[in-house]
Every structure is written in C-alpha cells, then in structure tokens.
Amino acid sequence: MGGAVIFGAVGYPPQASAQDEPLARFTHQSLRWKPCADRDLDGAGAQCAEVTVPLDYDHPDGRTLTVAISRIPADPARRRGILLSNPGGPGGQGLKMMVGIRAGLSEEVRDRYDLIGMDPRGIGRSDRVTCALPLPTMIFSAGFDLLGYARDTALAGALAASCVAPDPERARRITTRNTARDMDVIRSAFGEPDLNYFGTSYGTYLGAVYTQMFPEHSGRMVFDSAIDPRRYGPGMFADMGPVNEAALDDWAGWAARHDGEYHFGATAFEVRAFVERLIRQAAAHPLVGAGYLVDEHTLPPMLLTLLPNPRLNPDLARVVRMIADGLDGLPFDMDRLKSRITAAAPLDTPAMAAILCGDKAAPRDPAWYYRNVEAARASQPVFGAMANNITACAFWPDPVEAPTEVGNAVPALILQADRDTRTAYPEGVALHRDLTGSRLITLADTRIHGTFRVGLSACVIDAVNTYLAEGILPATDTTCTSDPNYAPG
C-alpha cells in the first residue's frame, strides 16, 4: 500500500479509566501499522508500529518513550496469538530478529503467531540512549600490568559519566524490569491474554524476569542459550573466561589443519602460542586507524566475538591473519577489520551499559576486579583479564530498584549447548532449576551460542516447533546432537 499508514484490525479490550487502571492509556493504545522502511522487513511482509510506554512506571503520567515493534502477520484463520522475541545483548536490536528466526519455524507455527520483533527501550529505533564517549564496546581486557588496568579503570569511569550525566532520569530507567513491563504493555495493546516469547542469550534473562513479574500472562516461553539470573552481571562475564579458552583451543585445532592457508602453526599448541604472541605484539606496537585501536585491551574481545560459532572459524582466521600482517608492517585495512568484528557482534554500547549497570549493582572497589584478573591469568592467559575486568558498572549510580529473583513454575523450554562460549552451560542448568516447570534440551558436544539454527540440529528445531504449535514440552530433559556437516572441516 505504498507509504500509506496501515491500521491493524486487532481487537482491543474495553477502555478503562485512569482511576481504575493507571496504565490504561498505554495498555489500551491502538497500534498504527505502516511499512518498516527496511529492505529485510518489508521483503518479509512485515509492518511496523510504535508503542508508547512510560519512562518510569511508578509515574505513568510523566515522561514517555516509544518502543518500535515489527509484525509478520499470522494466518487470520489459524492465528492463536503473538510470539515476541529478543536477540540478546543486552543492547541488541531486535526489530528484524523474526525475519531470521522464522526460517526455522514450521508452517504451522508461522500460521498461528504474529511474529513480533522489538527494539527494546533505549535501543535502535526505540529512543536510543547515547553516551558522549563513543566506545565500540564496554568490555575490554585489563592488559598485562597495573598501568594498563588503571587505564581501563579510568575509561570505565569516563564511559559511565558520559552515559549518565546528560539525562540521569532516562539513563537509569533503561532496565530489564522496565523492558519486561514494556513487553506486557505490548501484549495488552494486542488484546492478548498471554505473551508467547522467544529469547536468545540476554533475551533469556529478560524472558525469565517477565515470567517472574507477569506469571499470569506468560504463555509459551522459549529460552535459547540461557543466563543464570544469579550470575547476571560480573559473574556472567567471569563464566565466559574458561569456556572461551576451551573454544580458542578448539579453533586452534581447526586452524592447525589449515596451516597451509593461514600459517599460524601446524599444531593446536603452535596456533595458540601464535595468538598469545600476537596479543603481546599488539601491546608493544598497537594498530590505530579509522577511530579503532588494536592492542592488548581490544584484541581479546575481538577474538571472543568470532568464537561462538564454528562456521565463523574462517572469519576468525582471516582477522588474526590481518592483524598479524598489520603488526608485521604489511598493508592493513582497519575499515575491513572493523566491519568483520561489528558484523559478528552488532551491539549498542550505550544501551548495554545502561541495562547491565542499571539492573544490578556491581562491586565498586577496583582492587576487587584486579585481584580476580590476576587470579585468572595462569589458567586463562587470553581471556581471564577480559572476563574479570572492571566495567562502567563499577561507576554507575545505584539501580532504581532491586534485581528480580527468579523462581517460579511457569512452563518454559530451555535450549543450551554444552560448549556455549557466551552463556556457559551451567548457567542454563541453573535457570532450569529456578524455573521448576521448564524442560532443558542440551545440545551435546557443540561449540555454539544460539542453538535454534537451520541445519544445526533437527532435534532442537523439532522440539521448539512442537512446543510452540501444540504447547507440549518434552516429557523429560533431552539431549540432542548437531548435524556433523554443520561446521567447516
């Protein structure tokens, strides 16, 4: 219909007065659908709308935000509700998430649900939060000495100040609990009694918080690559150290089998030694250009970005080769390097900082982090100084409300790879324990973050589609295997 505004034919509950329901003007708002002005979304037949939500739910008559959502409509004759999604991060833009996810969904599931993407508050098209200090990430490695750690500490403090100072009220309310409230406003605006949900990575924490806050409206919940709510924050990052060391070893074995192409070494031991030397070279002679820096603080996070999927093995090898050539004085294209890294981890640093730091208070003492960094170095020579490093959260104002303690019997399907590099396997097991009505599907012997992928495991795909279509969880916890042809040889 070109650029014309499309009004959704959605039934809404009877209007309530503000005295009866303080959030009535939000929960009963009409959604105005229009083209998304995005090639992928428009090509998928999606429409977009903006949902108005309170900045502060304790003061619904105060400032507001807009949350951008997309909808790939269900078959009207078979529709049973909405399936909302979140891609993780925190800081991930989710407006286009369902364009990719629907490839793994059965025709029956696609027919039954409006597939809803969302840029959560403070992200992307949803009144994006900004910081005056334009850092590409809030996660750095502490480097090799106290001087390098002091630099990271100063940078973390500066980032926090640059994010909070311009608008403290707004910055401090870009939180998971408020996003969960926004999700319930979206549910109400659609006139739905239940919210069905597909969340990945951080999206599992968001979904778990929703089940705790709104158990009566929690429908069919799928949590892929889950976070332990108790470890959310510094503990979650610390858990990433050992699993990424193991992932680097796995990649090193692959790279050794391709030594004729990349020339890192003929054994996994030699490849790992090459990478560790590279980090020390970058410390002595950093690469700088196009507003980007490659040194001992930034190189470990770059490696981590490309470890969550074995199909990225060649991409990681190319990045390592590019950096090695640059350090050896050969022609080096920083823009090309940036594009490879950011394509693999398209997160919004200001939103990530606001959400993580606004959700849960972090330790304030810089010495606490440095002790943990030093303790991790021997067993985690590449990632220990990153996984335990100080962040902006050490300098963020205290959260406006306490973090959510998750523990309920809402049914949920939890998917977890046993060699996940971002959310360690024990974290998914812990969430399963907290959600007593859940079932856990383990993807065995697989280095992957995000298990719901076409071609990865038919067992996982079938379990998700059965649950979403029929509401049937597996009778017991289940172990799945991956397709042996998924990863490169």
Automatic annotation (TrEMBL):
Residues 381-480 form the Peptidase S33 tripeptidyl aminopeptidase-like C-terminal domain. InterPro entries: AB_hydrolase_1, AB_hydrolase_fold, Pept_S33_TAP-like_C, Serine_prot/Carboxylest_S33. Coiled coil: none annotated. GO terms for molecular function: hydrolase activity. Keywords: Hydrolase, Signal. Residues 84-255 form the AB hydrolase-1 domain. The keyword Hydrolase applies. It comes from the Bacteria. Belongs to the peptidase S33 family. This is Alpha/beta fold hydrolase. It comes from Nocardia panacis.
